[in-house]
Prior knowledge:
- By secondary structure, the chain is mostly helical.
- It has one domain.
- It has helices at 16-22, 30-38, 54-67, 71-101, 103-114.
- The model has no long low-confidence stretch (mean pLDDT 82).
Amino acid sequence: MSGKEKDVDEGIDFSEKAFKKRFKRTERPAFVDRILQNNPASDSKSRITIYLDADIVTRFKKTAQKEGTGYQTLINNALRRIVDSEQKEAEKENLKNELLKDKQFLRELKTALSM
């Protein structure tokens, strides 16, 4: 490039005023805020880095290809099932412990079983 040629960027006005003129900020529609407020936390995703065994990843990728979905979605769904089942088990255990402390319930149970 000779000294007489202009760089392409020299003709562009990079000032804040020019930027605001070219790019207008738009407000987010109200319905988007309502959707974001009504979604449970599990609907939001977090980007992480995780190391998994190669055979596990291969299995999920093959299954994902057959089902026409993403393998990361399948991994997430598998983890979700595990977490949900553990939570259900913990809730059952808590209910059992509460019922064992409830004398009235135990009396009614004893009556129902003796019939």
